[in-house]
Amino acid sequence: MFGDTTARAEASIVSEAVELHSGQSEPLLLKVRLRVAAASQNDGKSSPPPTSVLPLTNWKRDGEDWVSEPGSKLAGLQVKVRLRSQADGHSELLVETKATAPTWLRLLSLELESDSVGAEVGGRDLRPKKVTSRAALSGLDPKWVILRPDQKPWTILVDDDVDGVKVQVLPSQVLVQADLLSSESRPFVFFQQCTDHWRAPNRKASLETRLLQEGETLSTKIVAYAGGAMPLLKARYPEGRQAAFVITDHADQTTSGTLHALAGGTSLVSSPRFGKSGFLGKGLPMTKALWFRSGEPAPAASWAHPPRPVLSPFQKHMHSLVVYHSRYERPQVDPSGAGRPQLDDPALAELTVRLHRAGWEISPHSATPQPDDRDSTEEALRFFEQYNAKTWIDHQPYTNCEALTNRGFQGGNEGIADLLDRHKYRYAWSGIDVPASPSLNLLAPQRIDQYVPVVYPSGRLSTGAPSNLWLFSTMMTYIESSRFFALYKKKSLDQLEKERGLHIAHTYLEAFHPAGSKFAKRNLMQAGKVPGEIVPHPRLEQLLSQLQSRVAKGTLWVPTLQQLGDHFRAMGQVTVRLQNDGSATVHAETAVTAATFVVPRPGLSVLIDGQPLQTVRSGKTETMFYTDLAAGQTAKIELRDAKQRPVHLLKPMGAPTLIAKSNRVHVVVR
Ligand SMILES: [Zn+2]
User: Fold this and answer.
1) What is the count of structural domains for the chain?
2) Residue 339 backbone phi and psi in degrees, to 5
3) For the chain, which ranges sit under pLDDT 50?
4) Do residues 204 and 185 make contact, with C-beta atoms less than 8 angstroms apart?
């Protein structure tokens, strides 16, 4: 239907800037520069390296390509930018960087300055957005930028191998900055001291640079298409699901009784009711962090010894605590959290095997509640191999010196980063919590002007540390239970889905404190009908039912952290390209199940490699579809409108001649 009329793309150098041409479109003039903040040393105390701006003005031919390198040498870094024009009409800017010596990078970025008025991007909710001043797109945020959207448009597409893309709209220019590495999009904060008590003063510091070892490379490809393309956006979640809700539950409140209640709806494992409700009953998984050993029980308090015949009110209170602790097998803990057996309790360990089989991720919450040496951490990591654990969650990083967010990220005797790497851990909690808020979406779509990293690669944090660990941040929800349930009201969950949001909760779902105690208002567990029985709060069961029905409807995804991260990694390596014939190709580097895509036009049907796709859903403003992609697979995507006419992604108006005419207006491009 659409003839292949576009000529080969061409590029020329016009007064030190790059000019892209394609067919009859108006050319796009780009000034190209690098922004680099690098240092050869990092003693942890000196201030982060400042940013140098290096214009790329000296372009030389290299075969068919144009190549430029920064005029001034960068210590420890080789950077080359290559401009390649493709026969099918698009141009590519390739950035190739190699470290020639160990280099600490805060920023490495390619900036393109265009004479554009206005810009459009895809928002975090995958809906088109006009950029008013700034947009910052990281992680799986779409990285499609339409320059000069109102006339003579060009579309710039950046793959997700960059840390992010920033777009800045000025009165008569638009800057597009592709950050190959930016520590702003991979926050890492750590405690500077290791204290004896969690209340002792401590300070957090931010690690501003990441280490590139000698020989390591950073590269990306920026693709430019003439025209205002209709973007084919990658969605974050599989199967067309709108939002994700992830629970990471820390070990601190866990005992055998409450974990049974949370999992099976009652602490009485032999009851016929066990497994009918709770997480197992609803078929929901979570990431459950536990202690491999919970340490010695806290020393018995003196009041626990023979009561006197007449008790004071205080003693009566203490006596009821003793009854509580023995009735619910919930021993008192010391300030570290130690004193309650977890995986050292055979009943609890048996339950975790069942939970793992049911899809839960069973993870270490540090090895034990107390500071651990490398041998204990190693022993715990070996123990957790039976659950295929890949997510590490620090416990009390202010007192646990070996915590990743204390000294653990460093090398040496107190480091654990190398141990996590040896056991192939892929995810670790960043220790960064946002406060509880009914706006559940951690991606904060209203803050489109800044990076909002939630699940992201840490980069190499120290010499000897791995470079492939990803960090995740959470919302802290250890709050009064009335507030907890208010957070997760229907309206908030609807909003999360509408925003295509991501919620990762940092929870203590087994909170079950004695009545009248300081934290009893945070209880999410309560006494059951049978003496000694513990059951989840009815409103917790209601919340699980809510989640279950949204999962069944296909609107919400409730994965473990590991499943979420693995899907993000795989989708991050999917690349989309537009073809001259109006189709697109999607290429997967590693296998992805139910990879989802969104096109901002409703009512389309989709062909994949010529075959009609059955997983297409249409909304008011968009069409969404999903497909499995094998490792190394490239699939051709074609779109059809309601009358089965091809929809051209590069000329989406359906009237290519009109665009061509309007573009023929003579405008002198500098
Ligand atoms: Zn903890």
Assistant:
1) 2
2) 125, -15
3) 1-5, 298-308, 654-670
4) no
Q: Using the mean position of ligand 1's atoms as its centre, give its distance from the Cα of residue 270 in Å.
A: 30
Q: Which domain holds residue 554?
A: 240-298+333-567
Residue 479 Cα to ligand 1 midpoint, Å, equals: 15
Q: Note if the pTM is more than 0.85.
A: yes
Q: Tens digit of pLDDT for each residue in 83-110?
A: 999 888 899 999 999 999 999 999 999 9
Of 552, 567, 582, the last residue of a domain is: 567
pLDDT at 308: 47
Which residues, in sequence order, are CB contacts of 312 under 8 Å at separation 6+? none
CA 510 to ligand 1 centroid distance, Å? 13
pLDDT for the residue numbered 661: 37
State the distance from the centre of ligand 1 to the C-alpha of 507, rounded, in angstroms: 10
**Residues at Cβ < 5 Å from ligand 1 ion:** 250, 252, 395
Q: How much distance in Å is there from the Cα of 395 to the middle of ligand 1?
A: 4
- With respect to residue 563, please indicate whether it lies within any of the assigned structural domains: yes
In sequence order, what are the residues at sequence separation of 6 or more whose Cβ sits closer than 8 angstroms to the Cβ of residue 123?
Answer: 129, 141, 142, 445, 448
270-299 residue pLDDT tens = 999 999 999 999 999 999 999 999 866 544
Tell me the CA–centroid distance for residue 146 and ligand 1, in Å: 46
Ligand 1: distance of its center to the CA of 344 in Å?
A: 17
Q: Residues 408, 379: one domain?
A: yes
Q: Is residue 536 part of a domain?
A: yes
Ligand 1 centre to CA of 271 (Å) is: 30
Residue-level pLDDT at 319: 74
CATH, residue 140: 2.70.98
User: Ligand 1 centre from 140 Cα, in Å?
Assistant: 29
Distance from residue 248's CA to the centre of ligand 1 (Å): 11
User: How far from 408 is each of 322, 359, 420, 428, 550, CA to CA, in Å?
Assistant: 38, 29, 10, 12, 39
What is the C-alpha to C-alpha distance for residues 575 and 160, in angstroms, rounded to an integer?
A: 8
